[in-house]
Design brief:
Blueprint (H helix, E strand, L loop, with lengths): L2 H15 L10 E15 L6 E13 L2 E12 L5 E11 L5 E12 L2 E12 L1 E2 L4 E10 L5 H4 L1 E13 L2
Antiparallel strand pairs: 1-2, 1-9, 2-3, 3-4, 4-5, 5-6, 6-8, 7-8, 8-9
Amino acid sequence: MNIRKSIVTAALVLISTLSANAQFEKGKVYVGASLSGLDMSYNGSEKGKFAIEGKVGYLMEDNLMLTAQAAYSKQKYMPFMISLGVGGRYYIVQNGMYFGLSAQYLHHDDFSDFQPSVQVGYAFFLSRTVTIEPEIYYIQSFKNHSDYSTIGLKVGVGVYLFRD
């Protein structure tokens, strides 16, 4: 069994067996980081890539978070890429599953693209505030759909903090 199938299977087993001690109340601040790629994403121009992303968020209402993100990625035949974006997450009431929408501006050397995306993920609470967050995502490229639109899996770590 290849590594991608193993990771997807493990994520599905975790989602079906664990319940989150979710606390997605208004006023919490979120800080997170994730890795994507590692041959867990696909688009028409590359079979995989490595990316690291930082994200901050604020729960404006219960279960509704606004986010800002910055990412660095490297593909085999392209120079590094940097992206900045904004988005939001909606948590299904207290179970940890979330749906997200975001938009990012991606840039490297002489290539720029505006990319909206959708995400589905799950926040597994390791403690009262720390989570592991597997996420499946789809990024739509307006520059070149067949080469740069991407579907993939990322695994993140999040910290949910109370704002005093």
